[in-house]
Amino acid sequence: MKTIRNPRPSTWSALSQRPVKDATSLNEQVAGVYSAIASDGDDALRRFIASFEGRLADRLLLPKKALDSGAVNATAKEKAAVDMAYEAIYAAQVSQVLPEPASVFTQPGVEVWAERRPIEKVGLYIPGGTAPLVSTVLMLGIPARIAGVRQVIIATPPLSDGTLSPILCYALQKVGAETVLLAGGMQAIAAMAIGTTSVPKVDKICGPGNQYVVAAKQYAQTIGVAIDMPAGPSEVMVIADETAEPSFVAADLLSQAEHGTDSQVVLATTSVDILRRTKQEIVRQLKVLPRADVANQALKNSLFVLFDDIDPAIEFANEYAPEHLILSVKQARDVSRRVVNAGSVFLGNYSPESAGDYASGTNHTLPTNGWSRTYSGLSVDSFSKWVYFQELSKDGLRSISGTIDVLATSEGLEAHNQAVKVRFAGDKRNV
Amino acid sequence: MKTIRNPRPSTWSALSQRPVKDATSLNEQVAGVYSAIASDGDDALRRFIASFEGRLADRLLLPKKALDSGAVNATAKEKAAVDMAYEAIYAAQVSQVLPEPASVFTQPGVEVWAERRPIEKVGLYIPGGTAPLVSTVLMLGIPARIAGVRQVIIATPPLSDGTLSPILCYALQKVGAETVLLAGGMQAIAAMAIGTTSVPKVDKICGPGNQYVVAAKQYAQTIGVAIDMPAGPSEVMVIADETAEPSFVAADLLSQAEHGTDSQVVLATTSVDILRRTKQEIVRQLKVLPRADVANQALKNSLFVLFDDIDPAIEFANEYAPEHLILSVKQARDVSRRVVNAGSVFLGNYSPESAGDYASGTNHTLPTNGWSRTYSGLSVDSFSKWVYFQELSKDGLRSISGTIDVLATSEGLEAHNQAVKVRFAGDKRNV
């Protein structure tokens, strides 16, 4: 738990560096998996499942019947929780779908407009194994459905007996899952990126995963398959003033730290007292946590920064560009307007990151590793793109033909000019 | 000019393959440039300008005075053309900026909303040399300005004497250029991605370029700098029925073919007569083109496909996912609604690609190489991102705490649960 007092802005960039991992050997492994699946398809996929997941993959896709019978076994409590989270996420995600803009005439006879189109085929990756991420099924499946994606493949590694937990089946049913690939890791990503006899090839792959999954997604880009965003370990920054409650702040930091030993945890505070008491609370709360070992490891890389004033704390957050930013400060709404770089922001003392992870409705698939400077969190936009259109009348084209002539000439592209001139070649009045 | 009649859908994917280039040796060269600029900054940049651009870079940035005095020398005709293109592009780009959505309460006391933020620092690349792309200055600079980007660096290789053409200076002035880096190629991209004493480091790099620029942009991503989109050679597909005019179609195909020897040109038509006459027109028009050699080379990779009906032609276009799609067909508006995968679409006989390249108002920075399946063309969105917010009251958090409990438990993340429970620990009524 490194503590720094009023670091100068010139040091912020260095303080914001996340640990760098060398992925060279990983990339060679990934290339091998892709090449094998490209030549041997399902057979190669089965071999990798056997060696990496330690299972005999008698079936690659989950039959509809197995999904339905699995879902039936979810408890009433589990179903109610999934239902409530589904409603919240659906309401929030659909509210952020903006209407298509009206067309404009940039000149009389020159009409220009944009239309949104769903991406046709997407693959969603749900990390799994012993603790499958039920919430991620909702976070990915709901916006894909709202966008109107025609074909959704959901890949997740099953339990050792090849089944999925009842609550996971129920969540998959909720998002209307039709094709569920029972595989994880590099092999699942490669199968969706390339396509096999059993697994449809997709246009884009979304979802979180470990370093193997991340490397396999990056590789997918090199063969023309898009991905949602670059990824790194999860992270939270808390900005706390004297109105914060140390036990809450400590719990928020720990909920991030338990994700993995490489999780990033940062506290920026204006109060010496809050800093001291939060550290005490961390020690106290750690004792009862089942994943205390993981959290302890993550806390070794944590950063505690004391600022004299709230302003540099906000500026520091914008430099760090955290995935999650909790504003445990007075007038959090005002402060939030000055946040430029963050994935998801939590205002006040009763908005823990856990709320956004599961049930407030915001998406939990967010840019890490400083990418919130340029990327948005996952949304319906991630499953759509815009197509731009224009329709010109003959007079409309004539009205901009002089402009095209000058610009095409300046760029030495005469055929661009001719494509306009040929359309007026037979006219008495040439352009 | 390969001609195919009614290809079966099973062959479309293969027909849609673009030529693949091996970039391995390029990538090593790029890595070398990055490493040198990372250690030697401006000195390395100057060395690369000397060796790659063959100039002595006495100045790296264009002084404001030089920009102003250059712009003064633009002719009245040039200024009028830039002004008109500016107005059209501005009007179209700003019309596509959608208002921020209203916040929603996903439960009483659980408020969720999204706010748009400009990306803070961007680098725009303008290919140049003998024929600088004046239009690209507008296509990149205008949306960056509308988005509210705080710092825009525009990089372009100058003429051999280190100056920029008057029309280019005028266009730069129009978009409010403040920092103009007089360099091109890998060295310009690397300098903006890393930052040097003279060149500010940027968060994102946008703009077209040759294979060196593309490789350098891809490398930028590996060090945390975003790019607008993957890139490949430019391409056009024309869908023509019997109402098309062969001389127009030929001119449109040639205007794409003159871009570069690797340009992709595809005609899908339902009319044998149009096909035959278009080929004749291509031969005729080629004779008078200054860049006939380039166009001729590009035409060798072109594809002419004859379909019995318009429906498979549209489906084929969606499989091919062209950068530019011209619909020279009757009822083009109806047909356009069935286009799913294309960057920019041109309707009817008087909407040549040249219109969109310069002055209709749509952006000409578009996804190539099949990426229109998943990417949109450049827009104000390319210079912005969304930040997501939530604010919960204590009762709001209480209302979703049961859901968080069940889901966090199912995922084995107890600290996530504790971050909620601690907030009600002192209450008589626990959650």
Written account of the structure:
The structure is a homodimer of 431-residue chains. Chain A is globular, with a radius of gyration of 26 Å. Chain A has 431 residues and is of the alpha/beta class. In chain A, strand 5, helix 7 (166-174) and strand 6 form a beta-alpha-beta unit. In chain A, helix 4 (64-72) packs across helix 7. Chain A has 17 helices and 14 strands. Chain A folds into three domains: 23-228, Nitrogenase molybdenum iron protein domain (Rossmann fold); 233-376, Nitrogenase molybdenum iron protein domain (Rossmann fold, 3-Layer(aba) Sandwich); 393-431, no CATH class. Chains A and B meet through helix 5, strand 2, strand 3, helix 10 and helix 14 of A and helix 4, strand 2, strand 3, helix 9 and helix 13 of B. Strand 13 of chain A pairs parallel with strand 14 of chain B, so a sheet runs across the interface.
Structure summary, number of beta strands of chain A = 14
What structural category do the secondary elements of chain A indicate?
Answer: alpha/beta
The first-level CATH class name of the largest domain in chain A: Alpha Beta
Count of the domains of chain A: 3
What would the average pLDDT of chain A be, to the nearest integer?
Answer: 95
From the spread of the alpha carbons, the general shape of chain A counts as: globular
The low-confidence parts of chain A are: none
Q: Oligomeric state of the chains?
A: homodimer
Count of DSSP-assigned helices of chain A: 17
Q: Which chain pair has the greatest contact?
A: A-B, 133 and 135 residues
CATH superfamily of the largest domain in chain A: Nitrogenase molybdenum iron protein domain
How much helicity do the residues of chain A have?
Answer: 40-55%
How far the N terminus sits from the C terminus of chain A, by CA atoms, comes to: 72 Å
- Proportion of strand residues of chain A: 15-25%
CATH architecture of the largest domain in chain A: 3-Layer(aba) Sandwich
CATH topology of the largest domain in chain A: Rossmann fold
* Main sheet makeup of chain A: 6 strands, parallel
Strand order of the largest sheet of chain A: 1-11-10-9-12-13
